[in-house]
Amino acid sequence: MAASGGEIKKSARLAMMELSNMLSVPMALNAIVRLNVPDAIWQSGSNSPLSAAEILAHLNLSSSASPSNLQRLLRLLSSHNVFAEHHDGVDRRYSLTEIGRTLVADDDESNGGVSYAPYVLQHHQDALVRAWPLLHEAVLDPDGPEPFSRANGGVPAYSYYGGDDAANDLMRRAMWGVSVPFMEAFLGEYGAAGGLDGVGTIVDVGGSSGACLQMIMRSVPGIKAGINFDLPEVVAGAPAFHGVTHVGGDMFKSIPNGDAIFMKWVLTTWTDEECQLILKNCYNALPVDGKVIACEPVVPERTDSSQRTRALLEGDIFVMTIYRSQGKERTEEEFKQLGLAAGFPSFRALYLDHFYTVLEFQK
């Protein structure tokens, strides 16, 4: 039986109420990470369902801490499958789902125990939160400062991180927590399938500390030399890794030579013209048959309501708000055209991850 016009309007109003209040979800997520709730529940793998009062007891917080307010946060996040609620009709207890488990550091000491918790905190710093009410300015004045700069005294996001040690450290931990699981998938599929065969020297453009480059070199013994290329002030504090040379410079001017060039979430924050220049400099740094391996979010051609599409489009608006009003996530075809404009005759996209896509530009 078809829904009546009145029922359709009620559903529409309910949907708009949810959308209008959706800010509650990331803010609740930020709160439970700041309170260390996931660690209190996980307890080295036991993941035993706990009440809000029991969680607070594990956290050794002050006696004034509110179990009822914590439970309200847990109920909201349970509706988004971060926690599993166990309700016997009287008491409510909570354990971590697979989604919630991403907020607890893994047991791999070799990578320092990574989690998505720093990623949550990094996205919700005061300086970033201040930018969101100015998002409409990206529409009204796309050539002007991005919302982040407008909200923070004209300071762009990259300069903000460069001038604040605590924010920069949080950014590094956030990106490391996201990078490790992706790099493991990348090396397990792309590397194992021979994507890096024949590469003697690899350049990581925008490689920050060089940790991802180290992972590549450990996994592919044939690569004898790695060049970690980033801004001089970034590589100045990079740690020493066997076989890795840290080189400071400007990717808009030139890029060190190598058999392959790797970059991860670099192109997304730049305009089409800037991306063409970056890729052209990559082209000039490669031998015949050399290639660029770019790992970027790739938005679908058609918009749907799948979780993947929503996550990608949300990330696109984050870029618009925080980094560049005209930086953007792109479709596969848009990336192909950027490569062709830079001189790369061959292109392919490999969907090895739900968020990042591996883009291969062959010279």
UniProtKB/TrEMBL annotation:
Organism: Dendrobium catenatum
UniProt key word Metal-binding: no
O-methyltransferase dimerisation domain ranges (all copies): 17-105
Gene: COMT
Signal peptide interval: none
One Pfam family, short name: Methyltransf_2
PROSITE patterns noted in UniProt: SAM_OMT_II
Organism domain of life: Eukaryota
Assigned keywords, A-Z: Methyltransferase, S-adenosyl-L-methionine, Transferase
CDD domains in the cross-refs: AdoMet_MTases
The name this protein goes by in its record: Caffeic acid 3-O-methyltransferase
One annotated GO biological process: methylation
InterPro entries the record matches: COMT-like, COMT_C, COMT_dimerisation, SAM-dependent_MTases_sf, WH-like_DNA-bd_sf, WH_DNA-bd_sf
Domain O-methyltransferase C-terminal as annotated: residue spans: 132-344
Molecular function as annotated in GO: O-methyltransferase activity; protein dimerization activity
The keyword Methyltransferase is assigned to this record: yes
